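Much of what follows relies on a compact textual record of a protein's fold. With that in mind, consider the following protein and its fold in token form.
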Amino acid sequence: MEYKEFSVEDYKNILDLIGDNDRVLYGENISEDYSRDELGSVRVMPNVVVQALSAEEVSKVMKYAYNNNIPVTPRGSGTGLVGAAVPIKAGIVIDLSKMNKILELDEENLTLTVEPGVLLMEIGKYVEEFDLFYPPDPGEKTATIGGNISTNAGGMRAVKYGVTRDYVRGLEVVLPNGEIINIGGKVVKNSSGYALKDLIVGSEGTLGIVTKAVLRLLPLPKKAISLLIPFDTLDNAIETVPKIIKSKSIPTAIEFMQRAAIVAAEEFLKKPFPDNSSDAYLLLTFDGNSKEEIERTYEGVANICLESGALDVFISDTEERQEAIWSARGAFLEAIKALTTEMDEVDVVVPRNKVAEFVKFTHEVEESQDIRIKSFGHAGDGNLHIYILRDELNSEEWNNKLNNVMEILYKKSRELNGQVSGEHGIGFAKKPFLNESLPKESIEIMKGIKLAFDPKNILNPGKVCQ
């Protein structure tokens, strides 16, 4: 696709469409932040940034871009890890973070209608005041809900409650040609044609731009209790997970962690973890409406763990204890980042019974490739976060080793019947590995879907399957 070379005239025309100098950034007024996301290693500056306030503004910009063959990249708060918000072809960035209003709480239908720039943490706080609950719990709470929808974000509560797609009832979407459509709604069941809503969720801004979302809510569980369970080996810890899943007591979350990640978090937060003496841990959370109900639920699971080689079961039933554990778990990413000069991530998902095999394999790769690798993840759904650290490697050494390690790890995930990404998406950085992991026919179908939505390929080009 030949894109139009962006000109000063284009900037002036877009400025006329928006009518606000302060929200149309050009040239030196564009912050370097707009060239990248949290991944950081992929950077391209856009020609212009539009900080949109409404679906109508997004529509106007998209119509102009469509008629003039100018590429457009939508973005929220830029917390992604695969380069999905990077304007690879330059052009226009539409920043949706100022579209941050909570529009309606419908307590009868248990839905919340929001604009895409509302932060995940704001949604949780807002609905809790009404004794309601938005279950998806990705680790980055400063991510926008639009970004969560675009990547079908998962998080730690996915074991019991599912992922973002399970809580999106309806969407307002601006198409690449600028038309505004509404798909889904407040209905609970829907078998009316193709599931367009579910195509948009997880499409990483390549099919349309979400400008409004109707989210499903649940009644708020009154109480949560966590169990921190040390094991002498990672094998014992991970092999216990299928037994837990098969029991009648499904935890809200089942996380695994190793001692190295805990020590890194302790150093980063400057406060001790309740226990750091074991090589491997499971962290389980249970929720319910009373302490007694939760205790009945977790007692059976605690016994399963002890029978499977757990060294102990630490019960965190106070806010202070819960905070000590979960603040450390929440800090793992930042703590690992603080250990090195640069890093990249493998966000693979494998069958639950293959988690231990994959993690042990990363230790072998760490030795054979002479590079540091740290990991943690969601044992309950098989989604692993594997971080490859650059340390003092020069640019050429880093790129060669990184590509080699990623090839090795993704090859292993394919052997274990896994997939490239569990929750962070493909974006720009993981495209080669998606092409290797999926059949050619599947990639062609994805390209056909992209073509149907965006025949000029102007919306977030160069991402996912392109």
Q: What stands out?
A: The first strand starts at residue 24 and ends at 26.
